[in-house]
Task: structure prediction
Amino acid sequence: MTLVRTNRELLERARRVMPGGVSSPVRAYGAVGGEPPFIVAAAGCHVTDTDGREFVDLVSSWGALIAGHAHPAVVAAIEAQARRGTSYGAPSPLEVELAEEIAASVASVEMVRFVSSGTEAVMSALRLARAATGRDAILKFAGSYHGHADALLSRAGSGLATLGLPDSAGVPTAVARDTITVAYGDLDAAADVASAKPLAAIIVEPIAGNMGCVVPDRAFLAGLRAVADRTGALLLLDEVITGFRAARSGAQGLFGVRPDISCFGKIIGGGLPVGAYAGSRELMSLVAPLGPVYQAGTLSGNPLAMAAGLATLELLDAAAYAMLEARGARLEGELAGAASAAGIAIRVQRAGSMLTVFFTDRAVRNESDAQTADRGRFAKFHAAMLRRGVMLPPSQFECWFLSLAHDDGAIGTIVDAARASLKEIG
Ligand code: KE4
Result:
């Protein structure tokens, strides 16, 4: 095993044995340029790369680490569990405890099935919806991302209710065609599609995180619930990002909307591989071994992930959410102030501890609005922030995630770096 050398040498080695040198495309920095730092250590809100550079981290494992990196309580839970074994391939008390915790926190949840990623959760939830309704077609919203299952790598066809087209090589047309896509926030379009075509499910990010942060009108989610009820479609809320971030009860609790199926990930695993889909006892009883919907997984409900998730959720009390909201509000306000001081038009959109700085002067309500953002300017900003020791997600269309570890000092560092970086790129 060759000793790890500099970031550059590691990247060259990585590119020889891994596509793009990464395990997930966005990490390759294709959208922002430059070379991705290879992280070797992290604690609190800081990460350190192989060259010894330290950064304030706003990726936070894409939202999973709401308690911050290597939180002592989470590390202790993982260490203690590891000494009792890492995977049993059999039921364990930890899965029961985490399932009970999710059901106690989210009113629409009576039963939970754990899987190992958000993709797997959404893929399985769609299979459940199709089985429950006997229908194939699903409706999603442009700019949202629900993982890389074939049915969700589909983009809008030419007309409104036109069948979907593959959005990735390797996705069969026959699969993509059953996925219809309309603009996020467009309730009329959603209602028209649902009236024209029997849908198994309407799947939506209740607060969008994958076109950048977009908080929909309250009426949108309530309207989707009414459309689903009227047309017999199931409402599937993808809370992989927002679950236990937007609120303890998720975005569904915040907005008072009751889905038929919820998908979770990220935070409920405390940084270890996890996903879950959940709903009423009646609906979830269709899932094997109780019912005809098959879904399985070697590492589903993995004890280490369950232990890390439980330890994380234990930290998320009302005071924690109040602090995340206060820190998010401070960062939002000071970023806007820094931009106006630099004479640069930005739009900061936030929901609690997730936010996006769009380089555009207009409100971003959907994907086409988001596309007006100046990606080149964001790339310059990203590089300038990295040079100043702040690691932003490497895409204009992602969210910055705060954690309990982003204290006032860290917020100050971020704002100082932003002030200087905005002036530099101005
Ligand atoms: P995973 O399969 O990556 O665990 O989850 C897929 C997923 C599902 N639903 C939503 C709303 C999601 O945001 C995601 C994954 N999020 C991205 C970041 N926006 C993961 C980062 C990556 O792909 O590397």
The mean pLDDT is 96. The pocket of KE4 is lined by residues 24, 26, 62, 117-119, 122, 145-147, 205, 209-210, 238, 240-241, 265, 275, 398 (CB under 6 Å).
